[in-house]
Protein 1
Amino acid sequence: MKNKTDLSMIVLEYTYRCNSSCIFCYNCWKNDYDVVPELSVDEWKPIIHKLPPVKRITISGGEPLMRDDLPDLIDLLKERTKYVSVLTNGTLLDDRWARMFKEKEVFVQVPLHGLERNHDLLVGMTGGFRKAVKGIAYLNRNMVDFAVSVVGNKKNIGEIRKIFELAVALGASELLAIRFIPGGEGLRNLDLMMDAKEYETFLSEFDRVLNRYRLFGALGIPNIPCKFPEKGYKALYFSGCTAGVDWLALDPAGRVRVCNHSPTIIGDLREQTFGKVWNHPLLRAFRKHKVVPEECRGCDKVDTCLGGCRAAAQTLHGDWKAHDPLFDLR
Amino acid sequence: MIEFCFLLVLFSPLLYYAVAIVVYFKKKESRAFMQMVVFPLPFVFLIGFLLYNGYENPEHFRELSYVLMAVSIFTGLGIITHQLIDRERELLSLLTRMPASFLLLATPITMLVPGLFLKVAPFSYVVIGALMGIFGYIRYYQGKKRGLLYAYSAILFFVAAPLVSLVISYIYFDMIKENVIYRRAYWGDVTCHDIGYPVIFFQEEFIKPFLFSSGYLGLMAIVSSVRKYLLREKMKKDGTIPKEFFEVIEEKFHEEQN
């Protein structure tokens, strides 16, 4: 099937289940969400075949390693993309999984949200840190490329540089820094939100580590450059959000959302064609950069910035065009 | 001595290819294989150049042999050092940075021999441009967006810089004749005498700073690798990285030993 869209990436949430209980978890099924049964690999087949070829498919969750048929899904996804990546909390990673990732050339992303005590506290799992680090050791041992992601929040900002350095020391080839945004479980823990000064510390420490160890790193949630200027950073790669423009999220039942942080379902690939979903009015509005706060209209950076994270605005205020909480920090 | 140097130079890419093939079949590392195949290409070009000029003029043959010998030795040392420090993972990432390291190591050597830099540079700018392009593309292919910047730099290097030097050379038109003579003397009657001065001006004003900046990149790549090693050791000692991590790694090491 020839790619007639700009779609280049898909985030596929493979399971609702997870063995962690992160206090900032953005998964929308932690709140009011119409949870319907997860699909099997056979049920995913016709859905995946409806998709155009894309550059990357990221398997997320829940915790995808909780499903034993993950290798079959990866094989299926390889029909549509060359690059498959898996987001796992690392606690179930062992030699068998790592070998499989190596064989299938899968890129892995493991989160580390703090040093031992803080990580365990944030993910709600005693021993979670040690298990994740051991999982990373298996990735190293099998030479699997992996990134470490860190959700920056009020509880870990005090040790943020050490967390990034730990990721470097463990052999991560890339770092991903994600600021805490409300959603899912996070809606009940809004006090995790960083203030303006802490957010700047988050960015500058990230940049410092990237520069010192010559690593590639990016922000998982876009910055708002008019509020927090992007000049002066040496190694940090700032990028805007392209949710709905060139990527989409699929939930464990094959339903489509603009973004994995948003609970709004815009289509169902079990029943609809991809073209039908792709032409959803909300997606069209996203592609025309119409889903932005009023103040941002006319700004020359709106195409990339979108006024910050739209899903955070919608989740917190119930309006796609509301302010990203970062916007109101300054 | 010269024959020995020549053999060393000639065999270094071949050894490299041998390692690439072994890695590919043993580790099923297709990406590493590609990188390893790409990297020695400049050496192959240089050897071709060496053979050609050596045939035409034994003097150049000798000078270039020394340079290439030094480059080969330093490359080998670089690989061994990194293998000792970070084992295979870092070795692979080093290979993608090797072009910069190569420049870092080659530059001082060429500088040490009077006049040699000037003689090597006309050819080296082609190699450097190619290296930048290949290196940039590989990094981009790996998902490193900055790699694209390198690839674009290479295009600029090939296109914009010669044009600029050409324009400047016309400003200093009266100097051209002298340099044409020089160029003829070096190249013999084979090539390039009609672009004489621009090439020399270009290599002096553009290549030299470029070599140094590339050398800086290579140096930083090595420095950051050492920093990572020191960081890991520090975190191992203070217990930030739990012992489970090293147990798994060591387990693998012992498995391989057995």
Protein 2
Amino acid sequence: MVRKVLITAIIVAASLIAVSVGYAQGGGGDFPTDNDVNEIAKKLYCPVCPNTPLDVCETQACQDWRAQIKDQLAAGWTEEQILDYFVTQYGERVLAEPERKGFTSLVWLLPVVAALLGTAVVWRVLRGWRARRLEIEEEAPAPPPPIPSEVVSQIEDELRDLR
Amino acid sequence: MLAELGLITLILAFAAAVYAAAASAYGGQQKRHDLVASARNATLIAFPLLTVSVVILVYSLVAMDFSLVYVADVASRAMSTFLRVTALWGGQAGSVLFWGWLMSGFVALVVLRIHEEERELMPYVIAVAMGTTAFFIGLSLFVTNPFERFWHLPGATELTTSLWQPAGAMRYVLDDGQGLNPLLRHFGMIGHPPTTYIGFTGFVIPYAFAMAALITGKASEDGWIRATRRWTLVAWLFLSIGLILGGRWAYDVLGWGGFWGWDPVENAMLMPWLTGTAFLHSVMIQEKRGMLKVWNMVLIILTYALVLFGTFITRTGVISSVHAFAQSAMGPAFFAFIGITFLGSLGLLFQHLKSLKADHEMQGFLSRESAFLFQNMLFLSITFAVFWGTVFPMISELLTGEKITVGPPFFQKVTGPLFAALVLLMGIAPFFSWRRQSPRRLGREILWPFLLSLVGSGLWVYARREHPASFFALWVVSFVVAAILYEFWKGVRARMRGQHENPLLALVRLVGRNSRRYGGYLVHLGVMMIALGFIGDAYFQQETQGTVAVGEQLTIGDYTLRYDDLRQYAGSDGREVLEATATLFKDGEFVEVLRPRRDFFLVQRQPVTIPGVHSRMAEDVYVLLVGWEEIGLTAATFKIYVNPLINWAWLGGFVLTFGTLLALWPSGGAAWASYAFKPRESRLAVGLGD
């Protein structure tokens, strides 16, 4: 019974994840509004200020850049064309999200490698611990009569609750 | 002349700190308790000496002594007294002095406490902690001195700044100062910086104890961990409060509608918090099972190095541009200090590696121990991702010459899955028992919370079905909350059955008797509430921007905002204020009149956008005035954000604080009785074993 409920529950949870992953954004209009401009400006950083996204930057220069994006949208440019234009004009630093090519791809790669490496190390440590425990158990003289692990953990849990 | 007195006490404090570090290290090594006792006294005198310097600097700020360079930099006549006091930490020189003062306060408190069991560690605790304190006082004295004055040399066109009067120079007093950076002129100035600094400096205590344990060969025992558990928790609590207050402050003044922007300065604070949190959890394994001894050393060394690194990048501005490194005189000295601290500590650890053998072996894959290991790995992976993203622009500029930006999308994408895994583990791990756990029993334990979470998040998903991307995150949070509540319920039920208590009494006694454990669960609950704030920000935030004439409306979701009026007036504090009046309606019903503002600080030529916010537990409506028609003020541009769930983050901060205080609560015996001004000679003598 328990197992059935568990399996059903896991399936429900898994479908939730699937829906999350499958979600994609839509949108787009014909006449450029401030919202359309901000949608693109959000993906850019002010080329001259320290660490300020273009959509919230207050300076006159940034207002001009936003006006420029609006003009470009009105002229029918796509988002990609506008982003490319800003990169050629002001360099890679205008992109909020670093590119995934060349030297810059390292910024994406290393954290993933580190997390995988970390998992591998933890796994090895756990296995090492277990192997050593088995060795010790083999060496040990006549072990005491075994208590079922359920009973042990139940006792432990009840002790935990009392504490 | 007061400033000279402050300078003299600063010099004396430096001498006392250097002496304390040297004498206690030598005294500990030679087993000379007279030297150690004298170092202890020097530690106790350094704090009042620094206090005099700090009080004098605050007085100079309040009295506006514009002959001092620091005062002229951060104070001005237009600023309120409150802000002039907070200007103590508003600039580099003042904040370094403040930092040294706080740290020496922590160290003084520690030596006042009687460490009956850890007395052998004390000489080296003093040596390490006062060595670090001496470095900061030294920075304040030699590199960035807050008591520097302006001088006018005959015939010179520019003013000279110097501590001492140059030959033939005249003292020069400015009429008015620059004043604080406008963004800092906010009530939050009293909360975020001091709490952050207390959190940062507090970590010196567990670090110093860890180093002392290594030096004395006592690292294998868990004395240093038990002695510093509360200190670590206090430091961690202040760092957490500092992070939350910083987020709140950013939300109130930075005008981008959010509270966390993955800015290098924010990341610098987050990193030691992450490793510090890992440390707090990981030491439990050492206490209970005598395992992970080396690892805990690594974690505290890393945390402390990240504290120093955080201070380094916020105070030298090295991240926004590599060139700031050379501009700030602090850069090289600080960088060297971090290197020496980090490598020195690791070296010490390697030297004593053999002595740190685990007392027990791991029993099963499914156990509290392995959960802790994975949790550590996740915390460290997140820390690394944040670190790498933060320093990468600098590395890129150094190696390829190309400046790049690593913005929020990177951090969200890389740390998001790791955080989700961590939160999930947070829900399951309390159900794991030490040593080993049978999978079937684990399944039975988590079944109820799991079903409850499916129902809870199912309802939520139905209400918010337009945002499928959020489903998984919401389910994770629901599961963890259900798991925590289930733990409370199990405990209460056991007491109700066993002791025949009513539910309320059972709850109070349960928490009272296990304040550490249930305080910890409350902290987890607080963290989940903060996670809700992040989920609201990541998935449900709506924004719109538009220009409207007086009487016209903007619509966002169920809300409409009617633009009524715009007026301009001279505000206090040297600012020109432009304030809009706008009425907010929800489904056509009147809600509130909002007054978003744009304050322009004339001296600094800097605008600050102050939002008008309608705030409820479910959501905030956050209105910014971003533009206007110059002539006649007839049209204005507004940016409106609807920020669901954001207030849960602030509320979560309170729950987290309460939970930590519960976990800190001494279990029996008056806490103050364990402090003494004068240690008994015999104690020290016995401690040094002669």
